[in-house]
Write a structure and sequence with these properties.
Layout (H helix, E strand, L loop, with lengths): L2 H9 L3 H34 L20 H7 L10 E8 L2 E11 L1 H7 L7 H9 L8 H7 L9 H5 L8
Antiparallel strand pairs: 1-2
């Protein structure tokens, strides 16, 4: 009798015990994987973030805005190189109102200086700076909404699916 044959014969001697053991091991493996996923998710944002950047927000939520004068106060703090501001507002796909995406109103003069990881071609950057109604949209969201560079969209239509949009 080999060791493999002995263990197989013993494993199937009591099928309930074997099934419960396999189930318990599966639960333990799943719990480990889920916990590792949570730990990884917590750490990945910190690893991807700029090491020399700090953000401030309202104590309740980033949806509630801080007074704009705080930017001037922050810029006067010794060691601060640049500061910008942004206000959050929600957006919805007019074709699919359940599809929510975040929008931020930003200061165009300082936003791309502070968030230097946002890569925009120089011509498109200048067009955005010249147009007060312009928007920078990520490639995946643009694909999802069917947008391309130069499209004219009514932002109120993005927030209110009942209104028509210009194109």
């Amino acid at each position: 009798m080999t060791l493999l044959g002995l263990s197989a014969r013993n494993a199937f001697r009591n099928r309930t015990r074997t099934g419960l053991t396999v189930f318990a091991v599966a639960i333990a493996v799943m719990a480990f994987v889920l916990l590792r996923t949570v730990v990884y998710s917590w750490n990945v944002a910190g690893e991807a973030a700029a090491k020399d950047r700090i953000a401030t927000r309202h104590k309740v939520s980033f949806v509630i805005t801080l007074p704009k004068r705080y930017v001037t106060t922050v810029r006067e703090v010794p060691g601060v190189k640049r500061a910008t501001w942004m206000n959050w507002f929600g957006g919805k796909d007019p074709k699919n109102p359940d599809n929510f995406f975040a929008n931020f109103l930003v200061d165009p003069e300082t936003f791309l200086e502070v968030y230097d990881e946002v890569e925009v071609p120089e011509e498109q950057k200048q067009n955005w700076l010249d147009d007060r109604q312009g928007a920078i949209v990520g490639s995946s969201l643009a694909k999802q909404l069917g947008l391309k560079v130069g499209d004219l969209k009514n932002l109120s239509a993005l927030n209110d699916p009942g209104k028509p949009s210009a194109s």
